[in-house]
């Protein structure tokens, strides 16, 4: 499962507003398909059919004012759904989806464009009925034909994640004036009705005569609460709230989208970007630098109370951020080589000397949640793992994964162990050059590709440790467009990669780890994993009939990934670091998914509601 717009965000820059988690249907034990206002992946919906608003919003939040944000890099397109070009991440928000998720449930969705959702107990199909008043910004109605066209276009011409996400859909058809039915291929995929609920619906009439699969800076036609107002290519994008937005009074929208204007300024240099915040050139910053958080906010506006700096806890999975190996080449195809290199990343030194001890070491692809595998496999997990035992590492069954730690073993001992492992698989030190070489005399060299200079201070100590093994790792930082192109084409040796995870993983895992995605340019299987064990466990996650079995399947998948040593895990924090100029109000409740900036409001618009 992904949140609203995350399908776009992960492929571009990252979330830019509050997350809107999605979810699967809850039919309350009904033995037939009946129209419902929402759907839960497992269990019951929190919000009933007559709910007025989500609990974590302020329904009296005033409308008005401006929120100014920043992005690093640049852009050359307002089409965030395709591989080509570098899209403005915010451009996804102009499109409404069929359903919208709540941020205080693991995975539940409620009607946005869709008035109702219908699906049988086995979830072998789903039907959405559109709201009769749903409108595009040009006033034309949103139709069933738009839904069918959007699905087919994203599947055929969109980023690979859409093909992987929609792979189990057998047929889509208009079944009434305002209804669309999706019929699924044989097999169990209980998440699929919710996946289709996240479909961004695009205007068929607008795209007729235009090429969907090419980047464009032409302001697109949308249906959401905001539309593109103006832009300076590569520098700034301004969105304005649509005064007569058709869905402004829906329960899922009450208390949200409160700013009249959203402005996104682009900065190529992160230092300049940070200085611009301190100067008041933009309003809110989700800080990703531990050094900045610890030392960079000692400036007058903060001391005077004009800027606020807060750690806001969340209960969402941290996902995986790590140094990702590209296993498509021979150098990193050997698991034992990857294990050896993992010893050279000294997290404890980095945390103490670079991060001011703010971070926790990541030990799981689903850290900070019940989905993280701990201890040894349970009996339920073994039922999934034992049939695959001939393809698996024995550690999956008899060990708990724990990254190398210099708190437990001295770095020189870890590196000595790495040297022995590398020699066992054919890499030996050349006495003349002190370089590590293979049997053919080829030196062990590779490039770490970055697009953010902040990571240079993190990876350079890693390369120094590799030097002690006779390995030459060069660090290269490139601009956003070049980086995106090379990553989409898997033209790299190692990168710092991030895979976001939700409280209800599902079909997106195919795009992350499956054999089918490994050769699809633009997919999130950046590593190039082709493992029948991983493929099988992904399908177990997708087919899980209830929450308990989902957690079990995710634990098993987590073990297969960690013991595959496909990445060198880095670090995470269980809270959001938020700094903002003190001119905003925000609800008292922060949901499990963390900060929801789209529920904030401007205090300069009038009396602040209680």
Strands, helices and their partners?
Blueprint: H1 6-9, E1 38-40, E2 66-72, E3 99-101, E4 108-111, E5 114-118, E6 125-130, H2 144-157, H3 160-165, E7 169-174, E8 179-184, H4 192-197, H5 204-207, E9 226-232, E10 236-241, E11 261-267, H6 270-278, E12 284-286, H7 290-296, H8 300-303, E13 307-313, E14 320-325, H9 335-342, H10 347-353, E15 360-361, H11 379-385, H12 395-398, H13 411-424, E16 428-429, E17 436-437, E18 445-450, H14 456-467, E19 472-477, H15 480-488, E20 494-499, H16 508-513, H17 532-543, H18 547-563, E21 567-569, E22 571-572, E23 575-581, E24 584-585, E25 601-602
Parallel strand pairs: 2-11, 18-19, 18-20
Antiparallel strand pairs: 1-4, 3-4, 5-6, 6-8, 7-8, 9-10, 10-11, 12-23, 13-23, 14-20, 14-21, 15-22, 16-17, 24-25
Q: Between the first and last Cα atoms, what is the distance in angstroms?
A: 34 Å
Can you tell me the residue ranges where pLDDT is under 50 for at least 5 consecutive residues? 2-31
Query: How many helix segments?
Result: 18
CATH architecture group name of the largest domain? 3-Layer(aba) Sandwich
Radius of gyration: 24 Å
Number of strands: 25
SS content category: alpha+beta
Q: The CATH topology of the largest domain, please?
A: D-Maltodextrin-Binding Protein, domain 2
* Portion in beta strands: 15-25%
The strands making up the biggest β-sheet line up spatially as 19-18-20-14-21
- Label the overall shape: globular
Number of domains: 2
The CATH superfamily of the largest domain is known as Periplasmic binding protein-like II
Main β-sheet: number of strands, strand sense, barrel status? 5 strands, mixed
């Amino acid at each position: 499962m992904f949140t609203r717009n995350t399908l776009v965000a992960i492929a571009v820059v990252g979330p830019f507003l509050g997350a809107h988690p999605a979810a699967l249907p809850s039919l309350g034990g009904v033995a037939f398909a009946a129209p419902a206002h929402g759907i839960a992946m497992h269990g019951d919906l929190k919000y009933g059919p007559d709910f007025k608003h989500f609990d974590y919003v302020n329904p009296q939040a005033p409308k008005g004012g401006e929120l100014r944000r920043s992005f690093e890099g640049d852009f050359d397109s307002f089409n965030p759904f395709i591989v080509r070009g570098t899209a403005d991440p915010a451009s996804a928000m102009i499109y409404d989806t069929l359903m919208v998720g709540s941020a205080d449930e693991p995975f539940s969705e409620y009607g946005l464009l869709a008035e109702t959702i219908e699906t049988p107990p086995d979830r072998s199909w789903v039907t959405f009925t559109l709201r009769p008043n749903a409108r595009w910004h040009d006033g034309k109605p949103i139709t069933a034909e738009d839904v069918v066209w959007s699905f087919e276009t994203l599947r055929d011409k969109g980023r690979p994640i859409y093909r992987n996400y929609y792979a189990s859909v057998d047929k889509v058809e208009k079944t009434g004036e305002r209804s669309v039915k999706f019929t699924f291929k044989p097999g169990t995929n209980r998440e699929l009705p919710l996946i289709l609920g996240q479909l961004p619906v695009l205007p068929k009439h607008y795209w007729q005569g235009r090429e969907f699969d090419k980047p464009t800076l032409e302001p697109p036609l949308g249906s959401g609460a905001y539309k593109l107002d103006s832009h300076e290519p590569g520098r700034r994008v301004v969105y304005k709230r649509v005064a007569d937005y058709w869905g402004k009074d829906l329960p899922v929208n009450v208390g949200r989208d409160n700013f009249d204007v959203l402005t996104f300024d682009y900065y190529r240099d992160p230092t300049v970007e940070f200085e611009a915040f301190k100067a008041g050139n933009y309003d809110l910053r989700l800080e990703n630098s531990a050094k900045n958080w610890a030392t960079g906010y000692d400036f007058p506006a903060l001391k005077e109370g004009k800027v606020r700096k807060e750690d806001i806890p969340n209960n969402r999975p941290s996902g995986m951020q790590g140094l990702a190996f590209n296993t498509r080449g021979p150098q990193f195809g050997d698991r034992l080589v990857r294990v050896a290199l993992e010893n050279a990343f000294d997290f404890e030194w980095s945390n103490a000397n670079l991060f001011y001890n703010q971070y926790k070491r990541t030990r799981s692809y689903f850290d900070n949640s019940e989905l993280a595998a701990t201890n040894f496999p349970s009996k339920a997990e073994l039922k999934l793992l034992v049939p695959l035992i001939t393809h698996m590492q024995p550690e999956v069954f008899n060990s708990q994964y724990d990254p190398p730690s210099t708190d437990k073993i001295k770095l020189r001992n870890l590196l000595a162990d790495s040297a022995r492992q590398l020699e066992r698989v054919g890499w030996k030190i050349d006495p003349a050059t002190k370089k590590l070489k293979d049997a053919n005399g080829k030196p062990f060299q590779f490039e770490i590709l970055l697009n953010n200079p902040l990571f240079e201070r993190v990876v350079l100590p890693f390369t120094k440790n590799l030097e002690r093994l006779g390995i030459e790792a060069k660090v290269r930082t490139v601009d956003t467009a070049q980086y995106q192109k090379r990553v989409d084409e898997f033209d790299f040796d190692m990168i710092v990669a991030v895979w976001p995870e939700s409280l209800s993983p599902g079909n997106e895992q195919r795009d992350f780890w499956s054999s089918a995605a490994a050769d699809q340019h633009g997919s999130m299987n950046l590593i190039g994993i082709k493992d029948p064990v991983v493929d099988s466990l992904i399908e177990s996650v997708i087919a899980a009939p209830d929450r308990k079995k989902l957690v079990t399947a995710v634990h098993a998948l987590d073990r297969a990934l960690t013991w595959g040593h496909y990445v060198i895990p880095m670090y995470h924090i269980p809270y959001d670091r938020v700094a903002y100029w003190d001119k905003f109000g925000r609800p008292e409740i922060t949901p499990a998914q963390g900060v929801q900036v789209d529920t904030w409001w401007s205090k300069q618009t009038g009396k602040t509601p209680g």
